[in-house]
Amino acid sequence: MSAPKSDKIIAIPVKPHVKTFLEHSSNLGKGPYEIRKDHWLGELITAIFSFHPLTEPEIPADYLPEKTVKLPTVEIIPKFRINRQLLTDEHLNKVGLSMEVMFKHALIFYARGRMSLLNSEQGAVNCFYKEYGIDTDDYDTSAAFKVVNRAKDAR
User: Fold this and answer.
1) Half-sphere exposure of 152 toward its Cβ, with a 13 Å CA cutoff?
2) In whole angstroms, what is the distance from residue 21 CA to residue 2 CA?
3) Nearest to residue 9, comparing CAs of 77, 60, 74, 71?
4) Cα–Cα dist 153/10, whole Å
5) Which helix (H) or strand (E) holds 131?
6) pLDDT tens digits, the chain, 155 residues: what are they?
7) Structural domain boundaries in the chain
8) Which residue in 98, 103, 102 sits closest to 138, CA to CA?
9) How many CB atoms lie within 10 A of CB 20?
10) DSSP run (H or E) holding 92
11) How far apart, in Å, are the Cα atoms of 25 and each of 64, 81, 119, 133, 139?
């Protein structure tokens, strides 16, 4: 769902590979996105924005405000009330971090499914990159293999 740009837009910083993944037509598509409260992203935003205040130790170093200034953003237009006076960079960065976690889960489950067909971890990860248009300059395949292997080892 796309909408025209307005002052109601909230820009959430995400890493480039996460933005590419979310912009895929089977996910959110091109933004900005009109998000209702009962949409998965609306529920995530509501949960994170309800914590006041967020403290720095709760946010990894990659998602501290000084690091996220250079990141691309996912733009949303919430179709529900948000008290913007209580909204901080840390809240937006925590949503971005949560979106990265969702990306990793999608990678893990996609790779598991593909590995049952291909019997190749490398082939499964490469298929994920091709399917979602992920650039290896944005997210190195060795990082993706580590994510998939850690999930495999955790079982």
Assistant:
1) 13
2) 16
3) 77
4) 37
5) helix 121-132
6) 444 445 689 999 999 999 999 999 999 999 899 999 999 999 999 988 887 666 666 677 777 777 888 899 999 999 999 888 878 888 898 899 999 999 999 999 999 899 888 888 888 999 999 999 999 999 998 999 899 888 876 65
7) 10-154
8) 103
9) 20
10) helix 89-118
11) 29, 27, 27, 11, 20
**CB-based burial label for 40 (10 Å; 0-12, 13-18, 19+):** exposed
Question: Which residue matches tokens 């935003």?
Answer: 45
Amino acid at 50: S
Strand partners, 12: 74
Pick from 151, 108, 131: nearest CA to 24: 131
Q: Closest Cα to residue 127, out of 137, 141, 147, 146?
A: 141
Taking the C-alpha atoms of residue 118 and residue 20, their distance in angstroms, rounded to an integer, is 25
List CB contacts of 22: < 8 A, sequence separation 6 or more. 14, 28, 74, 99, 103
State residue 78 phi and psi, 5-degree precision.
Answer: -70, 135
21's tokens: 């993944």
